[in-house]
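Retro notes (design track)

What went well: tokenization of the new backbones is finally stable.
What didn't: we kept losing track of which sequence belonged to which structure.
Fix going forward: every design gets posted as structure first, then sequence, in one message. First example under the new rule, 83 residues:
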């Protein structure tokens, strides 16, 4: 299954609690689309968030964010795991 890294350049008012809640919603909604949100990284100071996601298509990954909380990524790039 392809892996993607999505980037949110600035989410206004980002907090650790808010990003954890959004990730939890992604994990709840994801199976409906065959998608698994695996990990996320964030910076409260800049509002930047990165999500690592496994999904059948980029469109499926976007739909999970849309349904779960509406915070769509600014970029979505397929990535390959390395050592």
């Amino acid at each position: 299954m392809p892996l993607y890294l999505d980037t949110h350049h600035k989410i206004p008012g980002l907090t650790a609690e808010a990003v954890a809640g959004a990730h939890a919603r992604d994990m709840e909604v994801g199976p409906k689309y065959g998608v698994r949100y695996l990990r996320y990284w964030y910076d409260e100071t800049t509002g930047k968030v990165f999500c690592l996601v496994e999904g059948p298509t980029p469109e499926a990954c976007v739909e999970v964010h849309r349904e779960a909380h509406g915070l769509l990524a600014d970029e979505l790039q397929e990535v390959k795991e390395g050592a």
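Added context from the reviewer: The radius of gyration is 12 Å.
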